Amino acid sequence: MTLRVLAAMSGGVDSAVAAARVAEAGYDVTGVHLALSKNPQSYRTGARGCCTVEDSHDARRAADVIGIPFYVWDMSEEFDREVVQDFVAEYEAGNTPNPCLRCNEKIKFEAVLDRAIALGFDAVATGHHVRKVDGRLVRSVDEGKDQSYVLGVLNAEQLDHAMFPLGDCTKDEVRAEAERRGLSVADKPDSHDICFIADGDTAGFLNRRLGEKPGPIQDVDGNVVGTHKGSHGFTIGQRKGLGLGGAPNPRYVLSIEPVNNTVTVGPREALRVDEIVGTKPIWSGSEPLAEPTDCHVQLRAHGEVYPATVVQREAEDGPELVVRLAEPAKGVAAGQAVVVYDGDTVLGSATIRSTARSEGAQEKTSA
């Protein structure tokens, strides 16, 4: 029996070529575009957008060229609840969330997959640059476009129903193929930034949602060196926008305490951490690492990869991941994901809760 595949079509070149490849392989393919906003004008448009009205039109035209049925699914309520509200709540708690990672987890591979399975589809195909080998997530051959980090939050069951047709080629090859297939999105720029913040002003967006909450900026000795309009407007490692002056002694955000609305700043060296604790570990490519295991970790999208020793241990509120880096990292923020790799293969992930300074002093980065 021919497998039924739902192709998630964002309106970009990657998802269009992914859908075309799946259809060409002989699967029974239906294209779907996700409408994520009740008010599309409030989201970014044009080349800087993602899941906008223009993207919907581009996705429909691509589906017509490919010759597959096409639908638009209204996921705006789920997106607002799971991504936008979570984004605001995480910043209010002093964390630094990754909304694209959250969208992949809760929308594209939870809400959409659940609906697809209920409708009789066998799998969901996307244009992510990543491979699936023997049921495990593996980095794309295009290292510069690899998206295994933002998909590291998926569980094994979700991966079982996922297809990633582009992991074996580069972005340049995808664009060339789109042109050969007559897809009008061949030269469309990649989307970037946060789609639901129309003007790109994250601090302004958070201020409108949370209100201004003035408080102190202090140094590592507790001396007040400035004021801010809300601790939610900062992230670990931030240097610009502090209003404290720059050279010759630039200062960086070291910690954020939303309870007392205090932001602590200090020298760049004070950002160094060599231990990370993560919560809610997910193991998609391995059994939980019950013994300390040498592997590699990635701490942000397209960020540096660090050799580390990783182990899962039991805590009062459930299992947690303990990561000890072989060399210190800087600017590690609570709320981000730590993704664990064996070579190019994803073993699992967790949400960063706290870090420890390389000199041994514990630094709590969330409330």
Structure description:
With 367 residues, the protein is α/β, with parallel strands linked by helices. The protein folds into three domains: 4-187, Rossmann fold, CATH 3.40.50.620; 212-270, SH3 type barrels (Roll), CATH 2.30.30; 272-363, Translation factors (Elongation Factor Tu (Ef-tu), domain 3, Beta Barrel), CATH 2.40.30. Helices cover 24% and strands 31% of the residues. It is built from seven helices and 18 strands. It has helices at 13-24, 53-66, 76-92, 99-118, 156-160, 171-180, 202-210, and strands at 4-8, 28-35, 70-74, 123-125, 130-133, 136-139, 162-163, 215-218, 224-228, 252-257, 262-266, 273-283, 293-298, 305-315, 318-329, 337-342, 345-357, 362-363. A six-stranded antiparallel barrel has the order 12-15-14-13-16-17. Strands 3-2-1-4-7 form a five-stranded parallel β-sheet, with helices on both faces. A hairpin with a 2-residue loop joins strand 16 (337-342) and strand 17. The model is unreliable at 360-367 (pLDDT under 50). Its EC number is 2.8.1.13. GO terms for molecular function: ATP binding; tRNA binding; tRNA-uridine 2-sulfurtransferase activity. Residues 205-266 form the tRNA-specific 2-thiouridylase MnmA-like central domain. The active site is at residues 103, 195.
